[in-house]
């Protein structure tokens, strides 16, 4: 089930983010992750339009949108490969139209997911807070298509 984020979802969102980040971002320092944990709880969720996905009666992932930019897409790794990432991006695409995302270059899980979905690489830049390289990717669906190019084996990402 996909639904709008509610404040009582915060712990589930943070848990999904943390477990997915630890898997997809082993190159990030613990100090950086602790700061992001704080910022997610105290700033990012208030600034973004966020949808959560539930399974087994709990929040297992989310997508946070700032206009048409995916600020974060994270799925608990125990639920990877089940279509939750695709469903969340499909929802964002239906609500927002063409999408953008920045993904860490070294995040193979995220890059593979977005490429399978049909996102195209646009540019590369430095994410100064982490010192990591990011790739800007965009997705513009063909008329009448929403995520049709995603394979069912795509792994959900953890984008910066």
Helix/sheet category: alpha+beta
CATH topology: Aminopeptidase
The tally of domains stands at 1
* Overall pLDDT score: 89
What string, H for helix and E for strand, traces the elements in order?
EHHEEEHEHEE
Principal-axis shape equals: globular
Low-confidence stretches: 146-160
Q: Can you tell me the CATH class?
A: Alpha Beta
Roughly what fraction of the amino acids lie in strands?
Answer: 25-35%
Number of helices: 4
Rg calc: 14 Å
The total of beta strands comes to: 7
Share in helix: 25-40%
Distance between the termini: 25 Å
Word description of this protein:
The protein is 35% helix and 30% strand. It has 160 residues and is of the alpha+beta class. It has one domain: Gcn5-related N-acetyltransferase (GNAT) (Aminopeptidase). A seven-stranded mixed β-sheet has the order 1-2-3-4-5-7-6, with helices on both faces. Strand 3 and strand 4 form a beta hairpin. The C terminus is likely disordered.
């Amino acid at each position: 089930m996909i639904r709008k984020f509610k404040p009582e979802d915060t712990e589930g969102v943070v848990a999904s983010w943390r477990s997915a980040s630890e898997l997809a971002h082993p190159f990030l320092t613990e100090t950086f992750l602790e700061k992001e944990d704080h910022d997610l709880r105290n700033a990012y969720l208030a600034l973004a339009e966020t949808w959560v996905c539930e399974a087994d009666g709990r929040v297992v992932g989310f997508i946070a949108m700032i206009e048409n930019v995916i600020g974060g897409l994270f799925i608990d790794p125990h639920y990877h490969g089940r279509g939750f990432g695709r469903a969340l991006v499909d929802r964002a695409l239906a609500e927002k139209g063409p999408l953008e995302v920045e993904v860490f270059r070294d995040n193979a899980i995220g890059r593979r997911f977005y490429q399978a979905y049909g996102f195209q690489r646009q540019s590369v830049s430095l994410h100064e807070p982490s010192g990591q390289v990011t790739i800007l990717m965009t997705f513009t669906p063909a008329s009448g298509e929403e995520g049709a190019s995603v394979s069912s084996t795509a792994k959900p990402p953890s984008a910066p």
